[in-house]
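Here is an idea for our session: we take a single protein and study its fold together. Start from the sequence, derive the backbone structure tokens from it, and show both lines together. Once you have written the record down, we can walk along the chain together:
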Amino acid sequence: MTHDTTATGTVTTSTSGDDRGPKATDTRFSAEHPARIAWTGLRPDVYKAMVALDRAATKGLEPDLLELVKIRASQLNHCAFCLDMHTKDALAAGESVQRIVMLSAWEESRHFYTEREIAALELTEAVTVLTDGFVPDEVWEQAAKHFEEAELTGLISAIVVINAWNRFGVTARMVPGNYRPGDHK
């Protein structure tokens, strides 16, 4: 994944139609905050291991389902960098704007998602918000109804990995807005 952690401290609006966000010459927006640390360059071994773990974890699961999971976990963890990345990837892969927008209120808009996606979102929330102390049996049973054991193991792995990415992104204060779909492949 290409994680550009440099920041200019200025904001502009893109005129190329590429939706990368505000640019330095537009004063309507707040200044872009600087990243705290460029961790990917300082620990390339950890970064490469994370990329390999991410690839292994997501193998065999539908890319559109994975993007929903990554977006939802990133919403819960307040990771702006990962939200920027995964919403752009989802849109580039053909996901609808409406389903992405409604994801933050998926429980009230269940009709936008399949039962399999709902089970994945429920599991994502339970694994991401472990402050409740556990993954409820009902959530586990629902996920087990919609995913074979190998898929379920992959889904759990993918949820754990996006949570790890989120923690790097939030802690390092990685700067959102400059990611382009496909940069991380």
Remarks:
- The first strand starts at residue 11 and ends at 12.
- The beta strands are 11-12, 23-24.
- The first helix runs from residue 39 to 42.
- The two ends are 6 Å apart (CA to CA).
